[in-house]
Amino acid sequence: MVKRLLALILAGLLAVGCAGMAEQAERDKSRADAHLRLGAAYLRQGQTNMAFRELFAGQKLDPDNPEIYTHIGWAYRLEGRHREAVEQFQKALALKPDFSEAHNFLGSAYMEMGRNEEALAEFRKALTDLTYRTPWFALNNIGLVYLNQGRYMEAASAFRQAIERESRWHVAHYNLGLALAGEGRYEEALDAFNAAIRNAAGYAAAYYALGDTFERLGRYDEARRAYEQLIKMDPEGSLTDGARQRLKSLR
Q: Do 87 and 169 have their domain in common?
């Protein structure tokens, strides 16, 4: 009787212990998710040191979370530490092989390392997932690989597919303009750059590209207006000195 009572007590203690462990695991996951969200916010602001602090804290609490590894890889990539970024993206994919965001990020790291074929393979893997929420990112990245290789027609096709998926994304319109200009299709390039500006009125790169394209067409007054608008809109921007030099050459 005593043995049976002891066994019942022990079973009860084990059940309570298991329940407590499960509750602790849920609390850890919740805390890890909070660290992940905060780390992602720091990344969007370019504050990689703060992001690393939050993401590593989250990783300790939830070491099997592929999103945390992906964001750590993103932070390494922002710092130009591409090998470490690749390692993190690969760890994320080991945990979740169909994680499209990780495939896209891994492809981006490969692209920046000049490993173009591996990059294309990763972008295409991302696109095989029909539930991928932002396929235009991978399509745009495919276009960038082709653009960097001077394969302008293929690049333009990829950018158009990205625009079909998200017509308001100014970056794909801008990149389409670059591809069309590369083919010498300047009038169509102007349409693409203007579409980028319609979707992002302060997009300095599109104004600079407009000015350059107008110059190539011999439409110098319009080129001047584009450069002047860029300088007025972004007087301290990275493209402003170049726009000022182009203006001087047009006077």
A: no
| Mean pLDDT, rounded, for 47-70 | 96
Whether the CB-CB separation of 230 and 243 falls below 8 Å is answered with: yes
Q: How far is the C-alpha of 251 from the C-alpha of 246, rounded, in Å?
A: 9
Contacts of 175 (CB under 8 A, 6+ apart): 140, 143, 144, 147, 155, 159
CA 209 to chain centre: 22
Q: Give yes or no for residue 8 having a pLDDT over 60.
A: no
Q: Kindly state whether residue 18 falls inside one of the protein's structural domains.
A: no
Give ∠ CA 250-209-101 in degrees, rounded to 5. 160
| Tokens matching residue 100 | 């499209």
With 70 as the cut, is the pLDDT of residue 20 above it? no
State the pLDDT confidence band at 1, using cuts at 50, 70 and 90. Answer: low
Within the chain, where are the H helices? 2-44, 48-61, 66-78, 82-95, 100-112, 116-127, 135-148, 152-165, 170-182, 186-199, 204-216, 220-233, 240-250
Give yes or no: residues 227 and 141 share one domain: no
Angle CA(244)–CA(250)–CA(251) in degrees, nearest 5?
A: 95
The DSSP result for 147-164, as a single string, is: HHTT-HHHHHHHHHHHHH
